[in-house]
Specification:
Elements lengths: L8 E2 L12 E6 L13 H10 L4 E4 L11 E5 L10 E2 H11 L6 E4 L2 E5 L3 H8 L6 E12 L2 E8 L13 H19 L4 E4 L10 H6 L5 E6 L15 H14 L6 E5 L19 E6 L4 H10 L2 E4 L4 E6 L3 E6 L7 E9 L6 E2 L14 E2 L5 E6 L4 E4 L4 E13 L9 E6 L2 E3 L1
Length: 422
């Protein structure tokens, strides 16, 4: 009799037995406004997302929450430089959209100033039960040895200042720990995620392998300066993801989930080279549109990330992973099923700098990690487990260029979360 092998995956992504009441919700978890270094008042940012069919949005300004009193100057023209300035033209835009008495302004020493709208007030204006949700967030903005190390905290209650530390990993770990400590002490569900690891080359795969208490990082970030694709000396975030998954799972640790986000800063000038909205988002399958359910689904891996490719469904049974793609007329789709075998070469070699010392660059790992097990243009795209895989994830690539990409040549893409094979 022929022996049949059954592969039982951990259902880290949505599956066939999920409740019928679950719905897909579209959201962005990384957004900036005039509360830190965005170029728009918060109501302009929120309106952009709500008007375009997003279901939830997290405002995540640098080392600040959108609460309390903050006044900014209103200038005749933006003089350029960083951060961007509020201008009278932008003020007129806000009043045209929200009313002549909006927002609150004052004159201080012959200078016009505007009060920034707080998150509680934004919630009253924009939130609708079951239709649109706002989640409080912060980008904890830290550094080590001059390199940026940023962590987003989503649905936190109180501001978390950057924690500092004695190494790249130590800074990262201390900030993750601070988020988890607040969650434990307050009982409020909240998550941390590692931002744009290749921004300033501040974070390498080994940091994410050793990191504890976090299961999220940005596999895609829409800011033009974050180097999603890496370079000749640094792996892109896709390659980094597989290295971290393989080495963490080999050690018996939790997997890492990949988020797509905007990291929006620029709302008024839409072009390559600006950090515009609408480039990357998550599609979360949850029972209800509230922070508790959204975070619960994220923590289960019950979501996918995308820059434009939309999936109808992701199904898993004991034999197959099935991806149903919502096709756009005239477009074709290529689905790669990517993973690492259970038996793989775990060795790695350091990258040396000009002085012959280990550089802060991801080590060189075997090509057994992050293999393309199979590739298909079929829809649905189906992968049959063999039992030899440690994990399998899908990357669905359209032949459609993004209308407003973070870099020229970027194709609309979606990423599912890893399925662990036991």
């Amino acid at each position: 009799m022929r022996k049949v092998l059954y592969c039982i995956p951990f259902l880290w992504i949505c599956c066939t037995d999920s409740p019928e009441s679950e719905n897909w919700y579209k959201g962005n978890l990384h957004t900036h406004t005039f509360w830190s270094d965005g170029d728009a008042p918060p109501e302009i940012a929120v309106a952009w997302y709500k008007d375009r069919g997003y279901d939830f949005l997290a405002l995540s300004d640098h080392n600040i929450l959108s609460v309390g009193e903050k006044w900014i100057k209103v200038l005749e023209e933006d003089p350029g430089g960083w951060p961007p300035s509020m201008t009278k033209a932008k003020l007129a835009d806000v009043r045209e959209r929200f009313g002549a008495d909006w927002p609150i302004t004052r004159i201080v020493e012959d200078t016009l100033e505007m009060a920034l709208t707080t998150l509680p007030k934004l919630k009253k204006i924009f939130e609708e039960p079951g239709k649109f949700l706002m989640i409080q967030a912060e980008e904890i903005t830290d550094k080590y040895d001059g390199n940026p190390i940023h962590v987003n905290a989503t649905n936190l209650l109180e501001l978390i200042p950057p924690q500092g530390g004695n190494s790249f990993l130590d800074v990262l770990q201390r900030n993750i720990d601070a988020v988890n400590k607040q969650r434990e002490e307050t009982g409020q569900v909240m998550i941390a995620h590692v931002n744009h690891p290749n921004f300033g080359w501040g974070i390498v795969a080994e940091d994410l392998i050793e990191l504890r208490g976090d299961t999220f990082f940005e596999v895609y970030n829409g800011h033009p300066g974050v180097r999603n694709w890496g370079d000749d000396a640094h792996p892109g975030t896709d390659r980094m993801w597989d290295i971290v998954l393989a080495m963490r799972l080999h050690q018996g640790l939790d997997p890492l989930f990949g988020l797509a986000v905007d990291d929006t800063h620029d709302y008024y000038k839409h072009k390559v080279g600006k950090s515009n909205p609408g480039r990357g988002w998550v599609m979360v399958k949850a029972q209800a549109l509230n922070a508790e359910n959204i975070i619960a689904s994220l923590e289960k891996g019950n979501f996918y990330s995308t820059t434009g490719v939309i999936l109808e469904d992701i199904q898993i049974n004991d034999r197959t992973l099935i991806i149903h793609i919502r096709e756009k007329t005239g477009m074709s789709y290529r689905t790669q099923f990517i993973g690492t075998p259970k038996q793989f070469d775990t060795s790695s070699n350091p990258v040396l700098n000009s002085q012959g010392e280990p550089a802060h660059i991801t080590r060189v790992y075997s090509n057994e990690i992050g293999q393309v097990f199979s590739e298909t243009t079929n829809n649905p795209a189906i992968y049959s487990f063999t039992g030899a895989e440690m994990y399998v994830r899908a990357k669905i690539i359209s032949d459609q260029l993004q209308n407003n990409p973070f870099a020229e040549g970027d194709l609309e893409t979606a990423w599912t979360q890893p399925v662990l094979i036991k």
